[in-house]
Amino acid sequence: MINKEAFNSFLRRNLLISLIVGLGTGIITLFLTIIFPATNIENAEAISASWPPIMKDLFGDPIHAFTNIYGWLHLQIFHITYWMVYSVLAAMLASRIVAIEVEKKTIDILLSTPLTRTQLITSRFLALILILLLAIVPTFLGALTGIALLDFPVLWGKLMYTFLIGFLLMLCAAALTLLISVFKPGQLFSLFTTLGLLAFMFLYTESLTKMIPFVRKISFLSLFNFYQPSDILINNNFFVPDSIILFIISVILLFASITAFNKRDIYI
Amino acid sequence: MQDSIVIHTCGLTKYYHSYPGLQSLDLTIRQGEIFGYLGPNGAGKTTTIRLLLGLLKPTEGDFSLLGKTITNYPKEYFQEIGYIPGDISLYNDITGNQYLKHFWNLRKSGNDKSNQQRLAILKKRFKIDYDKKIGAYSKGMKQVMGIIQAFMHQPQLLILDEPTSGLDPIMQELFYELLLEEKQNGNTVFFSSHILSEVERVCDRVGIIKKGKLIRIEELGNNSSLIGKKVTLTLNSIKILPIIQQLKGVKELTENGNKIVFFYSGELNPLMQSLASIDLTDFTCETPSIEDAFFKFYKD
B105 and B81, same structural domain? Predict the structure, then answer.
């Protein structure tokens, strides 16, 4: 199922860019963490009262964000917009699994070797998982270091679980790009279609579900419905099914990509 | 071993929506044979090759490679296949050596000493800078990389789609030598081309494909059966044209000033007897080149 060379070569050729992105976001994470204002509750309530409801919907209530370091992390580090950077990285890497090979016409020689189409996707997707994990390590360390520097207690469970669902969200973005690229093997097309879909899902979760009662009932159609860091960081609600659902979605998308890729003609 | 079938297709058909890319291809290629596959652009050569490699799925028909039908054809058998695509494209961001190592590992050639020797010989024969990034290579150098990756693991079957494209005459010469060595080693070559002289030079048989249909297969050692002998007459008078036209076996007669060119099939004696009474200033009778055959088949 896994081809070592396909795994290693994908890792070698994409690791550097991922580490640069990871390191950059790690430093930004550390900076954003240590500027926690530690506002007293009275001032936070005043700020909260000045915020319109839509801002509270989008970024969370400042009462939590300005008084609690984990509420602050939710606002700064675990907000969807921050993780969109990683989703771009994930989608970019996924578009290099199949689309770039077809686009650059290198797929023919590649598949004239004993490497199967399934092996090509699974080996490279596994390498992508490793690259993404390595890319979020600096962010995790940045948040951890920031909390330690500010002398707040490190709540490992909260942090690790929030990173886990963030990571699973990236994995879904990668698998979605992969599936699109199997049907329409263009690197930019698959990348921007994924980002467009993610942006739509973001608006769907953050706006449509709040404005239209019927849409609220089908909020599960958006991936972001299962990414609720505020529940974990502020409300201490570890809703395990969210992570399981995100994992299942990424696995389904991956298998759909493999099945479709095996059945389709490859045109160059 | 000489008689074992390496490629066998049965009614192999591929439609691109309603456009026929390949129609009912029945073809048998035996071990140790260099089979030329001739046709102009869009005739179906690359479609055939991409079907054989499993990159396209047949609309109808079946085929076998190295004795295994494609339905039960494990991908490990591709270890025995070397392939050069028509429009070669490589990874520009790595060096020649890294590229070869990548394909060496994909084919799990490992520490196989015989393959290592083969690779060393190929690199010695085709002298290019293997430490340079492929992006800086010329088209010919990229073609050399394609040739080496296809030959380095000593496959039993080589599928080559216009392999000399971009090669300079010296490299072409080296490549033809390589093909003949493969034949001597009992390996099979399926060789698509529209460069007719190279097909004529190295191939044992030629299949001519036109608009997705294989229209003819010819032994190249006996290509007179294809269109006969090519006869050129230079005359003092063209009044003898009707005499020539009446001769049995004369085809494709063309007249250019005092020169008449035609293809003649059959015994030479009747022709010579007819020509004996004609006032000729020059006469040539030659085995036609494959180019002649090619133009004959494609002019309609």
Answer: yes
Least confident of B14-18, B35-39, B205-209, B279-283: B279-283
B50, B55, B78 ranked by CB distance to A113: nearest: B78
- The residue among B207, B222, B237 that closes a domain is B222
Best mutation target among A3, A100, A108, A118 (most B Cβ atoms within 10 Å) is A108
B76 chain-A contacts, CB cut-off 8 A: 114
Please provide the DSSP assignment of chain A as one string: ---HHHHHHHHHHHHHHHHHHHHHHHHHHHHHHHT-----HHHHHHHHHHS-HHHHHHH--HHHHHH-HHHHHHHHTSSHHHHHHHHHHHHHHHTTTTHHHHHTT-HHHHTTSS--HHHHHHHHHHHHHHHHHHHHHHHHHHHHHHHHHTT----HHHHHHHHHHHHHHHHHHHHHHHHHHHHS--HHHHHHHHHHHHHHHHHIIIIIHHH-HHHHHTGGGSGGGG--HHHHHTT----HHHHHHHHHHHHHHHHHHHHHHHHS----
What domain range includes position B248? 224-298
Taking the Cβ of residue A100 and every Cβ of chain B, the question of whether any pair is shorter than 8 Å is answered with no
Same domain, B102 and B212: yes
A79-124 pLDDT, tens digit per residue, is: 888 888 889 999 999 999 999 999 999 999 999 999 999 999 999 9
Judge if B201 and B241 occupy the same domain. no
Whether residue B87 lies within 8 A of chain A, CB to CB, comes out as yes
Identify the residue with better confidence: A212 or B81. Answer: B81
pLDDT digits (tens, 9 = 90+) for A237-267: 888 899 999 999 999 999 999 999 999 999 9
Task: Answer yes or no: do B123 and B259 share one domain.
Answer: no
In chain A, where are the structural domains located? 4-33+77-263
pTM above 0.80?
A: yes
Tell whether B273 and B127 lie within a shared domain: no
- Interface with B, mutate which of A112, A117, A120 (most B CBs under 10 A): A112
Please answer yes or no on whether B83 and A9 come within 8 Å at the CB atom.
no
Using an 8 Å CB-CB cutoff, list chain A residues near B66: none
B54 and B115 inside one domain: yes
Q: Over chain B, what is the mean pLDDT?
A: 88
CB contact under 8 A, A110 and B54: no
A13, A105, A114: residue with CB nearest B87? A105
pLDDT value, residue B110: 76
In this complex, the residue of B50, B93, B106 whose CB is nearest that of residue A113 is B106
A contact residues 109-128, partner B, Cβ 8 Å cutoff: 109-116
- Do B43 and B69 belong to one domain? yes
The stretch B61-70 carries a mean pLDDT of 88
Query: B159 and B26 in one domain?
Result: yes
On chain B, the residues whose CB falls within 8 A of the CB of A185 are none
Name every chain B residue with its beta carbon within 8 A of the beta carbon of A100: none
Q: What is the pLDDT of residues A166-185, one digit of tens each?
A: 999 999 999 999 999 999 99
The number of distinct structural domains making up chain B is 2
The predicted model gives A52-79 an average pLDDT of 84
Q: ipTM of the assembly?
A: 0.86
Chain B partners of A260 at a C-beta cutoff of 8 Å? none
Last residue of a domain, one of B199, B222, B245: B222
> Which is higher by pLDDT, B71 or B134?
B134
